[in-house]
Amino acid sequence: MSRFMMFVAVFALVACGDDDDSSPTASSSPTASSSSSIDVPSSYVFDSRFTAGESSVVYTGQVVRNLLLQDLKIFTDNLGKEGAQSASADDMLKFYAHDDSYGMSTLTNPKDHEALESSYSAISTGKNLSGKIAADPVIGYNKTADALVREWIAIIAENSQDATKLGTKAVYTTEDGVDLSQMINKVLIGAVPYYQATGKYLDQLFDQGNAEAKEGKTYTAMEHYWDEAFGYFGAAADYNMYSDADIKASVSRDSNGDGKIDFKSEYNFAIAKGAAKRDIGATDATDFTKDIFTAFLTGRTLIVNEASQGDIAAQREIAANGMEKVIAATVVHYINDTLGDMALYGTADYSAADHNKHWAEMKGYAVGLQFNPFKLISDSQLQELHEIFGQAPKYLEVGSAAYNEEVSNYARAKRIMADAYGFSSANVANW
């Protein structure tokens, strides 16, 4: 996303189980009136319609889950580095099935500045990944994402007891070459934040009230559902002020100048970061970052202004489809990387670790595409995609019949993605 000035549109007032966080709460009876409309802001900042001087935005639980997901990856990756200590499954499950009693602090260290709040419970309490993961069986595995993640964690834990594997990539790589650190991370991105944003909060948005504040809160139920979807997208509040290169190089910025990074508003997590990467890698220009963020800003403004369901639904569709396209484009990116690895097999430049990593990222992100009720890709297309990818990378002699068939199959996978998402041939070739 290049820096841009947000087009400000004034929307006239039109009559028309969530994951609550602890704040902000209303300090008095409603005092503000919803009788006047607001303009679309340039940052994700919205005052309460009901309690003067208070914010109506809360998504701290989503921030904690994005941190837990990211920190689990840091932990599993560290087991493959020199000097690593062995770990138990429980050590990893403390991130996945987190409990405040563990008293844990994040492993994420923002670049250039320390974190404003380092412990998970200081940001939001009672949050974990295991309680929010999609329940549907994963295509091609006939197991839930929860069951797969727990199995993969157990394998890494067992490998870490082997001194010949600990401190090397073998600690998180299966005998058939599956990089489980990547698989756990990428499957969780799809099965928790992506699923929760689309499959719960955006999907159930119109079941929520929007005329009155929730009891003791500064926001309506519909406002809060929209905020929680945005929280899972994982963008900084002033996301539009970052360039794509900013996001890729440093996912955080001390926007308020206090010398610290607030994970709640000054940090970009997985899907938001991925949007910038795919925009940078596009041959035919895309602007996933701007499209998604503008939709979230506009939709939230429409909700505040009590606009029509149709107008709000249009922005919901842009946001949901935009996040899906980011993940889909990332699958294409790793198809291309995997093809590049395969072409080097048998040469001095070939890296099995790179091949295993890229295949797992391709496969893991592809798993996530199923967890979206608004998805543009069909179930039959997803089934075909997973049949092509299989369940492990293949190491094939370049030029052999098996190699040529695999290359042809991967070309078919890219055509599936182009057909489902309208990606240009240049982008599908070069992402």
Question: Which structural traits does this protein have?
Answer:
431 residues, mainly alpha, 14 helices, disordered N terminus, two-stranded parallel sheet
**Helices and strands, in N-to-C order?**
HHEHHHHHEHHHHHHH
The total of helices stands at 14
Distance between the termini: 16 Å
Radius of gyration equals 22 Å
- In the predicted model, the low-confidence regions spanning at least 5 consecutive residues are 1-17, 26-34
Q: Taking all residues together, what is the mean pLDDT?
A: 93
Total number of β-strand segments?
Answer: 2
Q: In which range does the helix fraction lie?
A: 40-55%
Measured by DSSP, the beta-strand proportion falls in: under 5%
Query: What kind of sheet is the major sheet?
Result: 2 strands, parallel
In order across it, which strands form the biggest sheet?
1-2
What gross morphology would you assign?
globular
Briefly note the structural class of the backbone.
mainly alpha
Q: Can you describe this structure?
A:
This protein is mainly α. 48% of the residues lie in helices and 1% in strands. The chain contains 14 helices and 2 strands. The protein has helices at 60-78, 89-96, 120-123, 145-159, 180-202, 221-233, 244-249, 270-281, 288-304, 309-344, 352-368, 379-389, 401-421, 425-430, and strands at residues 114-115, 260-261. It is globular, with a radius of gyration of 22 Å. The two termini are 16 Å apart. Residues 1-17 and 26-34 have low confidence and may be disordered.
